[in-house]
Design brief:
The protein is an alpha+beta fold and 598 residues long. The protein has 3 domains: 173 residues, no CATH class; 138 residues; 240 residues, Beta-galactosidase, Chain A, domain 5 (Distorted Sandwich). The chain has 14 helices and 21 strands. The radius of gyration is 26 Å and the shape is elongated.
């Protein structure tokens, strides 16, 4: 896509900002009528009652040097990071309570938290401590949060506190951003760091810098940098890092875009490129049902934050996104922060799931649905390549969802430790092929890197008959592993059955093939090793080898599962064919199975 501000100079931007110098990046946060309405919404949503639990007399945890150094010593991120996140959440809740004039609010508690943050030696996470890279995700976010607190409730804070906060933002964010000796890779990185860091610093500057020329000089490059973050998305709008990182990374792009739009009197709109609506629709393509969604790469399950759906709809009409948000029984969205409370205009989720199939051909992701109702199968699969940010070696992996359960799953990301982003990454079950429903061929797993890839073709999308997805995945494996490997899925929507056919072509007969299927559900081999019952009796899945000689076995990955985010043991269901030939066709069927077995 074209570079943002390609035809807008720094001088143009300065003149635009000067024309609208009386405008703010978030006028709704200081509008007394909107704040009164926000108080009513906070009561209606239950947020007001939750703030009753704000412990303003509680201790602020001390971040000891040993806490900070725990990551370097052992690779454990939780101790120091946990205290940093506690402070971050406490700060947001304390500011929200004061902004709402909640009875539990305490100016002193908020000021103590602000002072404690200013006293921290480093605003980065311990895992992100790098020489000559002094700004990370949390550091950049911290600047935007503190600037927003000064903007919203600064008139109730003591001058000493406000000066200290401004000085620390100047020292830790602005000066370090402009220091040419610092090598902050995120400025032009094609992943979530780009939008989080560039977007947060844009918002910080919009809140704190008044002079139009200075502000334009500061943010012009930051805005242009965000183009690289948009380039990280596939041409079809798909997020290679998964829906969780869509919400985190692109969410900060949305915040920055709306702040710029308001501050410039609607003159500057960075949501107009034709790729942007496609990116905005990505969560719909990745949704399964309720909180369940695609967990490819290091992503996880969860609901779409209401603010992001509200911000998208400020620019593009995509009300379907509200169906992905957490909602009350009456359909009203659950609200969590100042922006939610101000931007919400009564939009509701209908509770009706989107029953459409979807395909993102550039990303290589497909979702196919069976007939609605009890027993409906929803199927998702991934092609793509093994060189994406937060990559897993998982070309051809798939998910089968039925009756509220992920019966065959993608386990998502591991618990982050020093090992996760090191040369040892693919020793982790959740990042390598053993943790996904893909074959192991001659003992070989898939390899990492963009040259290891698959291609996807889909037939009869949203049709009434059998729907088909075909993945060519031989090139996901090291050279010489297999000559051809075609994985075909056929979903019969009327019968809610899914058939998998893997066709192999080798130069010579292989020594070993293991077809793998992964699940967190209870599984039991039955029918003399020819089938596996997965999940509960009535709502589970029957996995059977169609006409393929061989046997199923189940391998609980007990020790390796401890590195995962999901409680429980990931099980790898393995089918070993009896005969090994140069050309092989292995067929499997997934359905509700014989009722007497369930």
């Amino acid at each position: 896509m074209d570079m943002l501000l390609r035809n807008v100079t720094i001088a143009d931007l300065a003149e635009m900002l000067e024309r609208h110098k009386r405008r703010s990046p978030a006028p709704y946060l200081k509008d007394t009528a909107i704040i009164r309405q926000a108080r009513r919404r906070a009561r209606q949503s239950g947020l007001w009652d939750r703030l009753d639990g704000l412990n303003t007399a509680g201790d602020i945890p001390v971040i000891r040097r040993s806490d900070w150094r725990q990551y370097r010593r052992t690779g454990d991120r939780d101790i120091g990071q946990g205290k940093i996140f506690f402070r971050r959440n406490a700060l947001s809740q304390a500011a929200l309570a004061l902004w709402l004039n909640h009875p539990a609010a305490s100016v002193d508690y908020l000021q103590d938290l602000l002072w404690a943050v200013c006293e921290e030696t480093d605003w980065r996470l311990p895992a992100h401590e790098r020489e000559r890279a002094p700004i990370d995700l949390v550091c950049a976010e911290r600047g935007a949060t503190l600037a927003e607190i000064l903007f919203t409730v600064g008139d109730r804070l003591e001058d000493e506190v406000k000066r200290r906060v401004r000085d620390e933002i100047e020292r830790r964010i602005f000066r370090r951003y402009w220091d040419w000796t610092n090598l902050d890779f995120w400025k032009t990185k094609e992943n979530n760091w780009n939008h989080v860091c560039n977007g947060s610093i844009i918002r910080t500057a919009l809140y704190l810098v008044e002079d139009a020329w200075t502000l334009a000089h500061m943010i012009h490059g930051l805005i242009q940098n965000m183009t690289y973050g948009l380039d990280a998305f596939a041409d079809d709008g798909g997020c290679r890092e998964g829906p969780g990182y869509w919400g985190y990374g692109f969410g900060h792009y949305l915040y920055a875009a709306y702040a710029l739009y308001l501050r410039t009197g609607h003159e500057l709109n960075i949501m107009t490129d034709e790729k942007i609506p496609k990116i905005c629709r990505y969560p719909l393509a990745s949704a399964i049902e309720g909180p369940f969604r695609a967990t490819f790469a290091d992503s996880g399950h969860g609901r779409l934050p209401a603010t992001l759906a509200l911000l998208v709809n400020k620019f593009h009409d995509i009300p379907e996104l509200f169906e992905l948000c957490s909602a009350r029984e009456d359909g009203a969205l659950n609200l969590a922060d100042m922006h939610d409370l101000c931007l919400y205009q009564g939009q509701k989720a209908t509770g009706a799931p989107d029953q459409r199939d979807s395909v993102l051909p550039s990303l290589g992701q497909v979702k196919l649905r069976g007939k609605p109702g009890k027993g409906q199968i929803t199927f998702m699969a991934l092609a793509g390549n093994n060189g994406v940010p937060h990559n897993h070696n998982d070309i051809g992996t798939f998910i089968v969802y039925r009756n509220g359960r992920l019966l065959l799953t993608d386990p998502g990301g591991p618990v982050y430790t020093r090992k996760t982003f090191s040369p040892e990454r693919y020793e982790i079950l959740f990042c390598n092929s053993l943790g996904h429903s893909v074959p192991i061929i001659n003992g070989r797993q898939q390899s990492d890197g963009s040259r290891y890839y698959g291609t996807l073709k889909v037939r009869n999308l949203n049709g009434s008959g059998v729907k088909t997805a075909v993945i060519q995945m031989a090139r996901a494996y090291p050279r010489g592993t297999v000559g051809k490997l075609t994985r075909q899925f056929d979903l019969d929507p009327r019968a809610n059955t899914l058939c998998l056919t893997d066709t192999y072509v080798f130069a010579r007969p292989p020594k070993a093939i293991e077809e793998g299927f992964v699940t967190y559900e209870p599984a039991r081999v039955t029918a003399r090793g020819r089938a596996v019952r997965i999940g509960p009796a009535r709502d589970g899945l029957w996995l059977s080898a169609d006409d393929t000689p061989g046997r199923f076995t189940i391998r609980p990955m007990t020790k390796a599962s401890r590195e995962g985010r999901t409680p429980g043991v990931l099980q790898r269901i393995v089918f070993t064919p009896t005969a090994l030939r140069k050309t092989m066709i292995l067929r499997f069927r997934m359905d509700s199975g014989p009722q007497k077995e369930f």
